[in-house]
Design brief:
Layout: E1 12-18, E2 27-32, E3 35-41, E4 47-51, E5 66-68, E6 71-73, E7 80-81, E8 87-89, E9 104-105, E10 107-110, E11 113-118, E12 145-151, H1 155-159, H2 167-170, E13 179-186, E14 189-200, E15 203-214, E16 219-224, E17 229-239, E18 242-251, H3 257-284, E19 287-288, H4 300-308, E20 321-322, H5 336-340
Antiparallel strand pairs: 1-11, 2-3, 3-4, 4-9, 5-6, 6-7, 7-8, 10-11, 12-18, 13-14, 14-15, 15-16, 16-17, 17-18, 19-20
The structure holds FE2/S2 (inorganic) cluster and fe (ii) ion.
Fe (ii) ion (FE2) binds next to helix 3.
Length: 347
């Protein structure tokens, strides 16, 4: 079998929804980590993720199931289960089935995100998702803007973008590339500190891009300088070869509604454009086990060492090059380079 990358699906915390999109009593089918799952919110307000299929005769809870109190009810024969997946009621029997269990995934709801813990062997969480002050302070930060993207590439190829300073110039056509100050890892955490110069009508302003990753599925990126803008970037693997990426944005309140909105829109538009520019590269690239790096390239080796801790299953090391299993038609988007007519790769 030809594989697209050496890596299985990583374990960790992954966003499965925004809190605001799941009302009490809601039941939704979701598909992540190569699994069918059900996302639901009980009447006391807690969000849950369980295996999608009823242990009785296999109905999918996400299609017709409903919530009763703090239980989920199967659409097929009305059996009820609590959030731990235990059978609490069979409507046509005096007894419950003690063996029937709908496997739960650990869930945390923080920063307006519903995060589920995926581990291929069902191991318990080994770190937590922090409260991010900027996304919990509506007086000082604007209401969030969100974007979502389906990307046909493995998690690691998307995540590696963060340490790839040079591509900003060539793919995103920024005038300057971020200058790395430090890249430190500590268990599941990775912290990148960088300086970014912004050309403005009044001269070049020094800004910063600081990114903190908490495992493979959750990063906070802080852009400061002219204005302070913040992004939670969440990549959730659908399969080993595809990811759902969700971005949540906020801007530090500058005390002027119109200005906040202009800055916010420009920020979201720029990041959105960058994803569109990255997408054809990600979807069609090969994975090289031994890339030919320049001495001034970013900390790829350190990033790959950090990433490798999240693979509980075996990593394939039989090939040096992993090609895309299907190439995606090149989507002729209007990249910044083309729009501004100064493509640095043009000859
Ligand atoms: S399949 Fe769920 S109650 Fe029968
Ligand atoms: Fe990029």
């Amino acid at each position: 079998m030809q594989v697209r990358s050496p890596f299985p699906i990583p374990f960790g915390w992954f966003q499965v929804a925004w809190s605001a999109d799941l009302a009490p009593g809601a039941v939704e089918p979701i598909e992540y980590f190569g699994r069918h799952l059900v996302l639901w919110r009980d009447e006391s307000g807690a969000a849950h993720v369980n295996d999608a299929f009823c242990p009785h005769l296999g109905a999918h809870f996400g299609y017709g199931g409903h919530v009763n109190g703090n239980d989920i009810v199967c659409p097929f024969h009305g059996w009820r289960f609590d959030c731990d997946g235990r059978n609490t009621h069979i409507p046509y029997s005096q007894r419950t089935n003690k063996k029937a269990c709908v496997e739960p995934l650990p869930v945390r709801e923080v920063n307006g995100l519903i995060m589920a813990w995926y581990h291929p062997e069902g191991a318990e969480p080994t770190w937590e998702i922090p409260v991010v002050p900027e996304f919990n302070d509506p007086d000082n930060f604007t209401a969030v803007e969100t974007r979502e993207y389906l990307i046909g590439a493995p998690w690691q190829d998307l995540a590696e973008n963060g340490v790839d300073a040079a591509h900003f110039r060539y793919v995103h056509h920024t005038e300057e590339v971020p200058e790395l100050e430090s890249y430190e890892t500590d268990g599941p955490l990775a912290k990148m500190r960088s300086i970014q110069k912004f050309p403005t009508p009044r001269g070049v302003v020094d800004g910063r891009i600081d990114a903190d990753s908490f495992g493979p599925g959750f990063s906070v990126i802080r852009f400061s300088g002219i204005v302070d803008t913040f992004l939670m970037g969440c990549n959730t693997p659908l399969t080993r070869n595809s990811c759902f990426m969700r971005f949540t944005f906020t801007v530090r309140n500058m005390g002027d509604e119109a200005l906040n909105s202009t800055v916010g829109k420009a920020f979201v538009a720029e990041i959105d454009k960058q994803v569109q520019e990255d997408r054809p590269i990600w979807q069609n690239k090969a994975f090289l086990a031994r890339p030919a790096l320049a001495d001034t390239d970013g900390p790829f080796t350190k990033f790959r060492r950090w990433a490798s801790q999240f693979y509980a299953e075996g990593v394939d090391d039989s090939q040096l090059v992993y090609f895309p299993t299907e190439t995606k038609a090149y989507d002729p988007i209007q990249t910044a380079s083309r729009t501004f007519g100064s493509d640095p790769t043009a000859d």
